Amino acid sequence: MLDHGQAPPLTSEPAATRKPAHPLLRRKPVEQLVAEGGQGEGGALKRSLTMWQLTMISIGATLGTGIFVVLGEATPIAGPAVFIAFIVAGLTALFSALSYAELAGSIPVSGSSYSYAYATMGELVAWVCGWCLVLEYGVSVAAVAVGWGQYLNEFLDGTIGLTIPEGFSAPLGEGGYINMPALVVVMLCMVFLLRGAKESARINSIMVAIKIVTLVMFCVIGFMGIKAGNYTPLAPLGVTAISTAASMLFFSYIGFDAASTAGEEAKNPKKDLPRAIMLSLAIVTALYCLVALVAVGAMPWQEFEGSEAALAKIMENVTGHAFWSVVLAAGAIVAIASVVFAVLYGQTRILFAMSRDGLMPKAFAKVDPKTGTPRVNTIIVCLFCGLLAAFIPLGELANATSIGTLFAFGLVNIAVVILRYTRPEMNRTFRVMLFPVTPILGFLCCGYLMTELPGVTWMVFGGWMAVGLVIYFLYGIRRSRLAAADPAAAEK
Questions:
Q1: Strand partners, 41
Q2: Which 8-state DSSP code applies to residue 21?
Q3: In terms of Cα–Cα distance, which of 144, 135, 306 is closest to 211?
Q4: Which residues contact 103 (CB under 8 A, 6 or more apart)?
Q5: Ordered DSSP codes for 231-250
């Protein structure tokens, strides 16, 4: 590992003779990023997470709504070939995961792709990437929380015969006034997150174990109801429909990079972060494809239309008993809650890193000395996400999240190429295979899936980027700590 106290300079040129980079292009040296690891306002994050706990964070952030909720929306688009759409989305995620693994092992900090961009492409690109991550993590929490309420109603109906009235279980635009269950689950997660990283990781691991068992149980029972005729024709709506579904299902893979946001709380980040990222993606992809294959075999793809709790419906159809659908719904409640929990964790750490750099208000980097968590940051993020979940429909949220994530992943693929050529001597605990072909393919796949998203999603994304740039030029560019401390250190 690098000696943080004696980091080698980025260049042999004397500091006094170097010209400051343009403010938009100033870069933060890798050694400075690593040396600042864990330090916040008034305290420091605690290194307490093992490789297994990091893996559970990534699985917890990824495995959930994509298979429990979005599957029901993607199947009518792709037909029985929806499992192929999962594979396409998974391969796109894999290319980016390889790049994430290399950068996480080289730059083990909380900022994830934001920090990687800061070290390779400059402050403006880093800000844009960080702003996309705010969209990815913050908005996906709201989208996932919306799906949680659907399975809660399924569970309540099967146990006590009552459901939450539509006015209080659906957001505006979907027949309701407020999605109260979505708000509640975010607030519950906030309470646990405020207890500290180690305690949060334990709670997350328990929830992840429950949802893996639930999905395995679904596959075992659903397998008994498979009918070969349900797989033909495999792609009734054409190959283009598969790629369209894949762009939607990419939402299901959002979160595999969550381990990289825990870089400053991992015990052995250089080795454990790459392993956690790759292992979590392998487990999630295998489960997604298996569940999708069983689901479309057990129920005709046309019946998925409008079915928000499709897996629970399949369980009931196969067994003939409502009990199993209730069990599945209970598992989904835990599964989706764990996604909310893990993604909220990642969001707070992204904002922590941006705040420490001066690009966000310093309150986001304030660490509670007792729990070692960014307390104010966590409260603000949870309140924002909770209100968003309570009033915004799932579909629009999912697409907006996907485009922001694809954009950030594309930048990560570029960053790994730049860092490999500009800093070839760096100690890398993981290296992308078939370099530079793999990151280039990752970038192209992300770009392709972005083009498959609807025009309204691009309008939302453009508006989000415009707001982000206004904030940067009015606030961040003037308060950047890198420029204030040593402009020469941010050399091009």
A1: 366
A2: P
A3: 144
A4: 113, 116, 260, 412, 415, 416, 419
A5: G-SS-TT-HHHHHHHHHHHG
Buried b (16+ CB within 10 A) or exposed e, 408-431: bbbbbbbbbbebbeebeebebbbe
**What's the angle, vertex CA 297, arms to CA 294 and CA 299, rounded to 5?**
105
What would the DSSP string read from start to end of 195-216? T-HHHHHHHHHHHHHHHHHHHH
From CA 52, how far away is CA 279, in angstroms rounded? Answer: 10
Length of the chain: 492
The pLDDT, as a whole number, for residue 408 is: 87
Q: Taking a C-beta distance cutoff of 8 angstroms, is the pair 143, 401 a contact?
A: yes
At residue 366, the 3 state secondary structure works out as strand
Q: Is 391 exposed, middle or buried (0-12, 13-18, 19+ CB in 10 A)?
A: middle
Tokens 């006590």 -> residue: 160
Q: Please check whether residue 178 is in contact with residue 312, taking contact to mean a CB–CB distance below 8 angstroms.
A: no
Whether the CB-CB separation of 247 and 78 falls below 8 Å is answered with no
The two tokens of residue 38 are 């864990």
Q: What is the pLDDT of residue 306?
A: 62
Two tokens, residue 40: 């916040």
Cβ count near 135 (within 10 Å): 24
Residue 357 phi/psi, 5° resolution?
-85, -5
Side chain identity at residue 6, one-letter code: Q
CB neighbourhood size of 102 (10 A) = 28
Element (H, E) at 374: none
Cβ atoms within 10 Å of 180's Cβ, excluding its own: 19
Number of neighbouring beta carbons within 10 Å of residue 5 = 7
Q: At what angle do helices 269-298 and 82-106 cross, to 10 degrees?
A: 180
SS3 (DSSP) at 282: helix
pLDDT score for 157: 81
Residues of the chain with pLDDT under 50: 1-19, 487-492
Q: How many CA atoms lie within 13 A of 274 on its CB side?
A: 16
pLDDT number for residue 23: 62
Ordered alpha helix ranges (H), 134-195? 140-159, 180-193
Report the Cα 474 to chain-centroid distance in Å: 28
Three-class secondary structure of residue 370 per DSSP:
coil
Which single residue is written with the structure tokens 């909220």? Answer: 344
Q: What is the pLDDT of residue 43?
A: 62
pTM for the whole structure = 0.82
